[in-house]
Amino acid sequence: MEDLLGKIYSLFDSLYGKPLSEYLWGYNCDSQDYSGDLIYNQLGTIAIITAFIVPPVYYYLWNPVRRQQLKYWLLLGGTALVNLLIAYFMISSDFDNGLIGDCLMYAEGGEPIIGETNIVMFGIVNALFTAVLFFVFSVALFKWGSKTVKYYPF
Amino acid sequence: MGSKRLRTKTKLSITVAVLLLLLSVFTIGCGESPRTRANKRHAKKDTATAWILPAEFNPIINVYIENSGSMDGYVKGQTDFEHIVYNYLVDLKQIEVARALNLFYINSEILPQKDDINDFIEKLEPTSFQAKGGNRGTSDMALMMKDILKDANDSIVSILISDCIFSPGKGKDANDFLNNQEIGIKSYLGDYLNKHKHFAVMGYRCMSQFDGYCYDKNDRGTPYKGSRPFYIWLFGNQGALNRIRIEMQRKNRPIRGVENVFTAFEGGTETPDSCYAVKIKSGNFDLDKSDPKHSIKNLKADKGGRIRFSVEVNYAPLILGNDYLCNKKLYELSDPKFELISVENIDEFKKYSHLLTFETKQVHPSTLEIKLLKDIPKWPIQYNDEDGGAITDANANKTYGIKYMTNGIASTFSKNDYYTRMTININK
Questions:
Q1: B4-22 in b/e burial notation, b at 16+ Cβ within 10 A?
Q2: Closest CA to B372 of B426, B425, B412, B313
Q3: For residue A154, is it within any domain?
Q4: Which helix (H) or strand (E) holds A9?
Q5: Is B137 in contact with B69 (CB distance < 8 Å)?
């Protein structure tokens, strides 16, 4: 079960590259094993928690009476965006601090293979993952108990 | 009523949701994962191996120079023999590996000398050789080895410097003598190996000016002036020999004038888990998270259509030369569908010394066992003087009986046909 979130993210690793994926799995270039932090789990847990906490705010606290559909999607989009930014800044910080090992950072010829694009692409994947969770939690768990917006998003 | 049912539904939804969240966080964050278990397993296995001696291991080095009559020609005047031996002894002292460096002459008996290298070298002259005594008329290499190893142990490295010419003495059957020498060497070294399982032998063939009498198999001396071979043999614990070898290389102090090298040790060991690992990104595959160093999954063709992966391995403790280790023919793979396409030297002083790259035409699950085979050097046959007659320019680079000596050494270490083996799991 520890690897479940990583396996879900890895389905999309062609979008952000295997080297970055290995880093997020916790690959340590020195020890050549996965003894580093399992960042997939850290970011995945944040995604789950935010996708779990925000919908009840919409359904039980906010209870908007107008433009419910628009507000639902804005809230979903906002939550996804926050998770994109969390992933981006977290990995960028590791990148800037040289925490990503050379065996992942560079190709045989010495050219870098992890860059801004890879990090942004992973941020987008993380945002999509959050959005899907937000939607599933909303539909499966929360909307049924709402007084005013139980028919949203549909 | 409707509102109450709604509140009950809400509470139920939240309760289920909270339980789901707690369950997911709990399963993600808790418990010992396969990765953790695998790391612990490998750590345990590594501590059980005695492949490599600790870096701080400092042996006692005993140096024996043969002073039989045939050696006089190597020490007459200034010769390469003296320069090579002098440099070697100084280097042995200066690399600071030895706890002590003791000097001896050896023929039929061991003659301890003062531990002063300069004095020792300055006295390398025919007259002082003769003055040191002992029976200088015959060279019984097997007995010399027996004497050298008599009081040796794993913390002693014995170095024998000799022309290695087998000299039975007058009136003895030379062929019988050679055969008995081979058996004797095998027997004495075998006895030692039984007590010291990490015993190893290294030999260097060097050339030097020679001006003196060469003795044939019938002990007839004929004068010869020219270039003749001599040998430096190291006997001791494999780790200790390797420590000396690596420190000499690290400090850029190779033995001068070495033309050929001979290495023998039993081998037959598993390459320790910590000494090899699949190189990440060396092909289109995933590392197995539970055993990332030794197992790969989803091996597929890369963009160039090649199905390949590389393994980094530390062969430095094997006291084998780079030419040997980079010879693809000396590796045996258990799965014929895989091919070793290259062996590259990385750096002997780093974590891994060599990079092995494997390729296959067809993806299939496999437990690939890679053996580094034993191959006895051929140069002793090339430089063996079969006749044992008078030395001339035509056979001056040969040594009477050297083949029998190396055969005796090699057959001591013949229990295994390989030095080491490692295993990679592929798509299992």
A1: eeeeeebeebeeebeeebe
A2: B313
A3: no
A4: helix A4-10
A5: yes
Tokens describing residue B269: 């060991």
Domain count, chain A: 1
Q: Which chain B residue's Cα is nearest to A56? A: B14
Q: Could you write out the DSSP letters of every residue in B388-421?
A: -----TTTTT-EETHHHHHHHHHHHT-S-SEEEE
A151 located within any domain: no
Residue B308: CB atoms within 10 A of its CB come to 20
Please check whether residue A117 lies inside any domain of the structure. yes
Q: Which two tokens stand for residue A69?
A: 């559909």
Query: Does residue A152 lie in a domain region?
Result: no
Q: Do A45 and B25 touch (CB under 8 A)?
A: yes
CA distances from B76 to A57, B70, B132, B205 (A): 99, 12, 16, 20
Q: What is the pLDDT of residues A93-119, one digit of tens each?
A: 999 999 999 999 998 888 999 999 999
Tell me if chain B has a CB within 8 Å of the CB of A104.
yes
Given a contact cutoff of 8 angstroms between Cβ atoms, the answer to whether B370 and B333 are in contact is yes
The partner residue sitting opposite A142, judged by closest CB among B13, B34, B280, is: B13
Which amino acid does the sequence have at B247? Answer: E
Please give the C-alpha separations between residue A30 and each of B280, B281, B343, B352, in angstroms, as whole numbers.
12, 15, 22, 12
**Chain A touched by B251 (CB under 8 Å):** no
For residues B29-47, give the mean pLDDT. Answer: 44
Q: Is the peptide bond before A56 cis (omega within 30 degrees of 0)?
A: no
User: Are the C-beta atoms of residues B413 and B264 closer than 8 Å to each other?
Assistant: yes
Query: Which of the residue ranges B25-29, B114-118, B405-409 would you say has the lowest mean pLDDT?
Result: B25-29
Q: What is the pLDDT of residue B32?
A: 41
pTM: 0.82
Within 8 A of B39 by CB-CB distance, chain A residues are 33, 35
Whether residue B28 and residue A45 make contact (CB cut-off 8 A), yes or no, is: yes
Torsion from C-alpha of B369, B374, B375, B380, nearest 10 degrees: 170
The Cα-based distances of B337 to B101, B282, B308, B367, B424 in angstroms read: 51, 19, 12, 12, 14
* Residue with the two structure tokens 């063996």: B384
A63 in contact with chain B, both atoms CB, cutoff 8 A: no
Sorted by where each begins, the domain ranges of chain B are 60-265+376-416, 273-373
Q: Which residues pair with B105 in a beta bridge?
A: B65, B111
The residue range of the domain holding A17 is 4-145
